Amino acid sequence: MRAIEADMVSCHACHATVRIGEDPGKGEPHCPRCGEALAFRDYTSMQTVWALVIASIVFYIPANLLPMMHVHTFAGTQSDTILSGVLYFMETGSYLIAAVIFIASIVVPITKILILIYLLVSVQKGTIDNPKKKQKLYLFTELIGKWSMVDVYVVAIMIALVHFGGLTQIEAASGATFFLLVVVTTMIAAMKFDVRLIWDNAQKERDG
Amino acid sequence: MGTHTHIVVCHECDEIVNVVDPYKEGRYKCPRCGHLLFRQKHGMIEKMFALGLAAAILFGLTNYFPFLSFEVIGNRAEANFLTSVQYLIEEQEWLLAVAVLMTTLVVPSIRIALVLALFGPLYFGKVPGYAPGVLKLLDQTLPWAMVDVFLVGVFVSMVKLVKMGTVIAGISLWAFLVMVFVMAAMQTTYNAHMVWDIVETARRRER
Q1: In chain A, what are the domains?
Q2: Is the pLDDT at B95 greater than 60, yes or no?
C-alpha cells in the first residue's frame, strides 16, 4: 500500500513516517521529529521543473556557440568552444580525453534535458507504463548531473596555470558562464522533480 | 501524530515498507520499486569519525601546498586551490568564481566540519542538540560538493597542458586524490536513517 492512501507521509528531510490523520491541527502539518513541513506530494514541482528545463535549453545555445576561453599567445588570440576543444583532443590523438569531454559536456546535458522532458510529459499525460524504468531514468539524471562541471573546471585550471603576464595567458569567456548555468539549472530541476507522481499514475491503473 | 521507526516509506514510490529487523547488517530495499531505503553497517559512527578526521587533515594539506606547477621555456607558474578563483575575480567572472569556490572548497569543507561536529560527540556517546540541523545540511549540501568532478577536470587539464610545457604535480594533488576517495568512502558508510533513530531515542529518554 502507498503511504498517501493510509494518510501517511514520509518526511522529505528526515524520512520519519508520520500519520497525518491523527492530528487535526491547524494549517500545514509539520514533522514531529525534525520540524519540516510535510506534504503528500509536491504538485507545484511540475511547473518549477518545466521552468528550469526551459531555462537550461535557453542557456545551452550560447554555451555551445560562444567560446569557453580565450588563449592569448605571442602568435595571436585563439578562442575555444566546447566542440573545438573536443576536436583539438581528437586531432592530437588524446581519444580518451576527447571522449570524456564529449560525454561530460555534450552527451550528459542533452540526455538530462531530454529525460526530464520525457518524464514531465509522461506524468502530465498520465502515462501508466513502466514506472520502474522511468524511476531509473530519473535516478540516472540525478547521478550524472554534476559531471558536466568537468569543462568548467578545466577552464578554471587552465587560466590558473597559463598566466604568464601579457604574452601568454588564458582567459575565461562567456560560454563558460552559460555552460555553468546549464549545469546548475538541470541539477536543480532534477532535485525538484517529485518521482512519486510517476508511481501515482501507475497506481490509478492498478486500481482499475 | 506518531512516528514509526520500523515502518519506512519509500521516498521514490511512496510504498509503505514494514522493516522487520531494521538493526541487522545489510541493505534494505523497497519491495515495490527496488530503491535502496537504507544501509545498515556496524561501526558506522566510528568509521565516519575516522574518515572525517582523515578528510580534514588531507584537505588542510591540499590547501597549504601548491597543486600543480607549469613550466614553459623558463617561465614557471604555480597554482594552488585559490589561484583560479583569484584570476576569475580579476577577470570579473563572478558567477564562475563563486561556483568554483563553492563546489570545490566551501561546500566540501563545510561537509567535513559537519561530519566531525556530528560524529565526534556521537563517538563519545553524546547526542548533540544540533544533530537534526546537521543531518539536514548534510543532505542538502551533498549534490554541491564536487571534488570528484574537479579531479577529473585536473586530469583533463594536465593532458591539455602537457603538450604546451612541463606539468609538475605538487603534494596537494596527491593529498587531494586520496581525499576524493576518503570522501567517497564517507558517502557509502553514511547512514542518516540510523542517526535519526539515535536522535529520537535520546529525545525520548530526556522526557
Answers
A1: 1-40 (no CATH), 42-207 (1.20.140)
A2: yes
